[in-house]
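fwd from M.: "can u put these together and see what the complex looks like"

so here's what she sent:
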Amino acid sequence: GQQLNQSPQSMFIQEGEDVSMNCTSSSIFNTWLWYKQDPGEGPVLLIALYKAGELTSNGRLTAQFGITRKDSFLNISASIPSDVGIYFCAGRSAGSSNTGKLIFGQGTTLQVKP
Amino acid sequence: EAGVAQSPRYKIIEKRQSVAFWCNPISGHATLYWYQQILGQGPKLLIQFQNNGVVDDSQLPKDRFSAERLKGVDSTLKIQPAKLEDSAVYLCASSLRPQEGSTFGSGTRLTVV
């Protein structure tokens, strides 16, 4: 089946540093979503991208829909301790646009040192 | 608005027993999803409902898993009989339309011993 490769698997950074993570697919996607999951909770939607090349910000978070439609990137600027969590990318392939079926990456675990 | 409600939060059962999870989506959300999240992995879609009809259940192990959405609102997911590898968090999510990002519940953590 379809798979998303998300990297890095984990990151341990100093407070105030910028963070970058990405997600790649072997097939073309029409939608990219980025979620954050805290322990014991469900994922929370951060940013949704619907067009190739689209660049969208949500506060200190910026995500981009890759031009090839096979990748997406998430950047977090000036990290703070509450950014700690697991970040998931999720994509919706061209064939599933009508049904909305999402495929999730394996997640990037972010730890921030105060 | 109220979020997606799930119960129970935790469940421990022995293998070969049965278990059921309940989900109440956000009011007005026509699309409802059940995901399985194994520790260290991303959520995997089990079944998707549009109102009370099944849109996608291609990854649902139908020999042991079943799900229904009563009157297009609440939904239940059942496992019978459970196996050790069913230990996971079961997440329910809903959205107004299939193309939009979903709102997730807090999940039910199932441990099969």
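replying to her w this: The CA atoms of residues 77 and 107 of chain B lie 12 Å apart.
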